[in-house]
Amino acid sequence: MSDSINIRDLNVDCIIGVNPDERHRTQRLVLQVELQVNIERAASLDRLDLTVDYEAVCSQILFLLHLGQFRLLETAGQVLCRTLLLPPIEGEQRAAIESVKIRIDKPEGLLGQALPGIEVTRRFVDIAYTEQRTAYGSLQVVHETPEMGIYRKHLAPRVIVPVHLHRAHQEAEMVISHGVCVQNGAGPLGSIRLWPSGCPHGYSNPTDMGQGLLCISRPPYNPEDEVLVQGDAAIVSALTSRELGERHVAAAWPRNA
Length: 257
What we know:
The protein is α+β, with helices and mostly antiparallel strands and 257 residues long.
C-alpha cells in the first residue's frame, strides 16, 4: 500500500544562493512536497496523531529555509528530507514518514529566462543519523558544516535543562512536540525562539514521554560553549515560522557570507 500526503506550491522568500549579492537579499522558492505515509489507521480512527500534520511540516520547512540560508538548492533539499524523515519522538504524536520527495524551483535563478530547480527523494531506510548522548537526553545530527549545524534535541522524560548561555554560539530552536516548557513557561508546538550568544535560556520536559526541539546552531554545537547561569532566563518572545518571513527576522539572523 502506498499513501501520500502532498503540499503543493509552498512559497518561501529566503536567502539562497552562492553569488555575493544573493547572500544579502531574499529570493522566492516554490516547493512541492510528497510524503509517503501509511494513513490506514489514521483514516480508520479519524485521528490526526496517527498521520502527519501538514501544517507542522510546512512550519518546519519555513523554519529551516528562513534561518538555514543555504548556498545550494541541493543542500536545502537534502536537509529538508533528512529532517522530515527523523523517526517520531513520543511527544510529537505523529506517524513515521517512509519517504520524502521534494522539488524546489527558483524562479529568479536565471533572470526569468528559464526555471531552475531540483528534485530530491530520500527513504527512511537508507538514512543514518549520528547521535550524541547529552545530559538532557540525546542530539541527532541532521546536517553539519564548519559554519553551522542542524539538530534534533531529544529531551528525556522529566528532565530539566538549567538556565545557560553560549559564549559564541547563536541558536534558533523550534518546539516540535506537545510538552516542552521554555523559559519556565509553556512552549507551544511550532513556536520558535532565537538565542543570540550571551542570552540566558533554559527549558524542560515535565512529561512522562520524550519531547523534541529542532535546532540551528552557528557555529556547530559544542557542549564546551555552554555556561551555566545563576538567575533567571532572559525574556525572549516566541515567533511562528510565518512571522520569520513577515517580519524579515531572518535578515538580522547571522548569515554565512
